[in-house]
Structures are given as structure tokens and as C-alpha cells.
Amino acid sequence: MARGGVGESETYPVRMARTPFTLAALATSAVAGLDVVGAAPYADDGFDSAVIADRDGRTWVIRVPRSAAAEAEQSADLVALGALTGGVRSRLPFAITGFAGQAPVEGTRAVVLSFVDGSPSPTSSMGPELAASVGAAIAAIHALPTSCVTEVGLPSLGPVHAHQTSTTLVDRAVQTGLLPAALRERWEHALLDDQLWQFQPTVVNGALGSHSVLSDGVAVTGILGWHELRVADPALDLAWLFSGRRTDAADGAFATYLHARPGADRQLAARATFYGELETAKWLLHGTETRDQAVVDDAVQLLHGLVDDIQDDRSPSLGAETAPILALRDVEALLDRVERVS
């Protein structure tokens, strides 16, 4: 359940968007005994959604996919939520939505979930306390037992898969003829660095971003969007913090993460930075594949901006030898600075 995201694909036949009151009526069909007393719009790209209040004072969200891609995401999300049992959730310092019911509607289904309170968490407005909470939240996900994912048949992917997937993405970006030479050289050098791809897979959310990490401004209150739950590279969940120019918030979150997981591999930050940069390549490919020139132009501008940051030393190196993980004393010193600021 993401608040934001890229454009839709394979959209269902055009129709009027469902109103909150129409969705509220669907919710009563999906959840037996639900007595709705109010409904309001809910920002949720790819879905017709509404927030619903019931007579018992509880709050819910109903979502109806508007495209085949959204429907597939919803199905994957439900599988993941099933894997996140009560015992698993008790290990996490934030809330996760829960499945309440579903009902068929026009060839797809409406799904009702418990509401998770909070606002999106962009790094640009993230203070020291929230940054520390974000780091602790991600560390808690990565500390979950891998069996909670693998036992329900969700993927378990190691370094070879991570390297192959990244290689394919870079190759496709190169084939567009729009990737700046400086980025091609930087990314291909990272792919040739064997040390960069030595890591221990962990449970990952796989789709973390400022839109899915919710907070009250001080602490993480919940995380939405579990459709990419799997065992994989922990750097995937840190990429959104490391995309673009490094910020104090990203450093603070990473320091707290390392304090909670001191055994993390030494190239974690470098891979997270790499994955963050590859998001721009994905945006370029989205534009070229959908023939959306506005998206292509935006992606090209972002790519050249990234080149400028690299040339001005505002973006860290991707090389294993120049991007070591912080030593314990460095982590403690950074945490001390965060506490003083907060």
C-alpha cells in the first residue's frame, strides 16, 4: 500500500473513479458486520482507495486496483502480510497493516485493511530523531528470521542474482544511447568489483521509500507496501536513503542501523548508493518503453545531474576500496552527534 510511485501500466478500461462512499459500500460487503460511519479519499497511486471509520472507532483502508500491475502488487502484498504473523510483527518497532476482508468487483477485488497512521518520510525534512528511528526500523526488518519468508515460498536471492539483475539493468540503460559515458564507466566498474557483491542476504521489505515509511515526525509509526518481501540484499532497503546527495539524515539513519547490526558487510553503503543511482536508470527505461518523452527528458536531466554530483565529489564512490563501512568508534561518534543535535 504505497502513497506515491511511478505511473500505471496495463490500465483497466477507462471509467469514473469510485467515490469514497461507493468504496465504503464495498467495504461492508468485504467485512461482515462492518458498520461504516464515515469515509474520506486516500492517496494511493494505482488504486481507488478510501479511509473508512466504523462505529467502534476503528479505521480501515479499502483499495481497488485500477490496473493489472496494481492487482498483481496487491496480490503479492497479501501473501507477504500473511507471512508477517503476529509473532513476526512483535519483533518490529512499528505497525503493519492487517487483512480484514475482500469482495469481488468488476473483474478484480476490493481489499479492506487496517489503517496505519502516519505521514511519508522524505529525507529532506527528516530530523535526527526520525533518522535514528528509520535506521532502527530497517535493522529490525533485517534481523527477522529468514524462515518467516522462505517457509511461505517467497524468494530467497543471493549475491549472484543481485549482480545479474544490476548488470541487466545497466546493459538496458546503455542500449538506449542516453546514458552518460561517466555513469556507464562508474556503473560498469562497480559491476566488476567482486568485493562489492559479497554479502549475507537478509529479510528485506524490498520496496522501501519515503512514501512507504510512515512517521509522526519523530519516530516511524508504520511501513506500507510489502509486495517485494523476500530474502535478498539488505542494501535494497537502504537505497532510498542513499539516492541523490548524501544528507545528515541518511548518515544518521545508517549509523543507527550499524549500531543495531554491527556485523553488516563493509560494502553495504556502496551497494545502497549504486541501487539508488539505478533507480534513475529504471525511470529512463520506463520512459523509453512507454514512449513517454516527458519521462525520458526528466530521466536524462536526472542522469546528468547525477554526473555533476559525481564530478563535484558530492556523491560517494562505488568502489569497495574507497567506501568502507564505518568502524564501531565512528558509529558511536556519529550517534553522539545525533543525540546532541536532537
Outline the structure in words.
- With 342 residues, the chain is an alpha+beta fold.
- The chain has 2 domains: 20-114, Phosphorylase Kinase, domain 1, CATH 3.30.200; 119-341, Aminoglycoside phosphotransferase (APH), C-terminal lobe (Aminoglycoside 3'-phosphotransferase, Chain: A, domain 2).
- It is 44% helix and 15% strand.
- The protein has a 5-stranded antiparallel β-sheet, with helices on both faces. A 3-stranded antiparallel β-sheet has the order 6-8-9.
- Strand 1 and strand 2 form a beta hairpin.
- Helix 4 (128-142) packs across helix 9.
- The longest helix is centred in the last third of the chain and has 23 residues, at 268-290.
- It is globular, with a radius of gyration of 21 Å.
- Residues 2-10 and 321-325 have low confidence and may be disordered.
* Element pattern in H and E: HEEEHHEEEHHHHEEEEHHHHH
Arithmetic mean pLDDT: 89
Tell me what the CATH architecture of the largest domain is: Alpha-Beta Complex
Q: How large, in whole angstroms, is the Cα Rg?
A: 21 Å
At the fold tier of CATH, the topology name of the largest domain is Aminoglycoside 3'-phosphotransferase, Chain: A, domain 2
* Total number of strands: 10
CA-CA gap between termini: 31 Å
Across the major sheet, the strand order is 1-2-3-5-4
Q: Looking at the structure, what is the overall shape?
A: globular
Please state roughly what percent of the residues sit in beta strands, choosing from under 5%, 5-15%, 15-25%, 25-35%, 35-45% or over 45%: 5-15%
The DSSP helix count reads 12
